[in-house]
């Protein structure tokens, strides 16, 4: 049985941790749009109340027009909060499932007590974005959009960068502390340095920082087909809480 109250809280902190440029509500359907970055998390309709299922075709048509204005395809993010009637509508209309993501949580009390803060986060957003793009191999054209997103994060964010002389950035992650919760985002390890424990090291460095700041639990969102990332987080004590997927209308 999924704890919907827990899902609601994790959804809320997730939105704050990775803020969209434009946020619009249609009833309890949260429409997130971001012209500067193509991330599905930043460009999707997020229904937040299982009982809000009135006028489904009309509301989806309205949302499609909003997305078209941003040059984005209409996506609905299907979570345990999505009304069953909306899911049935999408199923009947042949909407495609764009893959699943697992939301996981860990108790920070399980972290070793004798480890201090061995890495301090950076405050230089530009340096972090350059490191993230280098590690991930993403398009450098994403730099302005990613910079805007990180600068818009309202809770305290720790930007962690591991570097190696003569090589450059080897691993990065962002820890976003929101009261007693911390979200781990954008974790990446340079392809040439994978398999050396850097992912575990930078994850634990960020978790120790958040724990010292007062966080008690950590959360992360991991694509279900990313076996390496799932193994990393499960080794660190993260456990599955719920899943979500993105749904896209069937093409004609």
From TrEMBL:
For this protein, the record's Pfam families field holds:
Rv0428c_C
Q: Which UniProt keywords apply?
A: Acyltransferase, Transferase
InterPro entries cross-referenced by the UniProt entry? Acyl_CoA_acyltransferase (IPR016181), GNAT_dom (IPR000182), Rv0428c-like_C (IPR056935), YpeA/RimI_acetyltransf (IPR050680)
| SUPFAM superfamilies in alphabetical order | Acyl-CoA N-acyltransferases (Nat)
Q: Where is the N-acetyltransferase domain?
A: 115-252
Question: What GO molecular-function term can you cite, just one?
Answer: acyltransferase activity, transferring groups other than amino-acyl groups
Q: What name does the UniProt record give this protein?
A: GNAT family N-acetyltransferase
């Amino acid at each position: 049985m999924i704890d919907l109250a827990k899902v609601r809280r994790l959804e809320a902190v997730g939105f704050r941790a990775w803020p969209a440029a434009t946020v619009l509500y249609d009833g309890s359907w949260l429409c997130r749009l971001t012209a500067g970055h193509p991330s599905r998390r930043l460009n999707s309709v997020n229904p937040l109340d299982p009982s809000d299922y009135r006028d489904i075709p009309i509301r989806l048509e309205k949302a499609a027009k909003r997305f078209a204005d941003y040059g984005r395809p209409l996506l609905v993010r299907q979570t345990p909060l999505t009304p069953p009637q909306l899911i049935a509508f999408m199923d009947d209309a042949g909407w495609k499932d764009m893959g699943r993501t697992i939301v996981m949580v860990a108790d920070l009390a399980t972290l070793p007590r004798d480890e201090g803060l061995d890495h301090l986060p950076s405050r230089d957003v530009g340096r972090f974005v350059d490191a993230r793009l280098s590690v991930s191999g993403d398009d450098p054209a994403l730099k302005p959009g990613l910079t805007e997103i990180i600068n818009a994060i309202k809770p305290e964010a720790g930007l962690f960068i591991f570097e190696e002389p003569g090589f450059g950035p080897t691993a990065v992650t962002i820890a976003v502390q929101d009261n007693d919760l911390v979200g781990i985002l954008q974790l990446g390890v340079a392809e040439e340095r994978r398999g050396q424990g850097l992912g575990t090291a930078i994850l634990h460095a960020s978790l120790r920082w958040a724990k010292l700041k007062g966080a008690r639990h950590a959360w992360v969102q991991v694509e279900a087909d990313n076996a390496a990332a799932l193994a990393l987080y499960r080794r660190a004590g993260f456990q599955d809480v719920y899943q979500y997927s993105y749904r896209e209308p069937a093409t004609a």
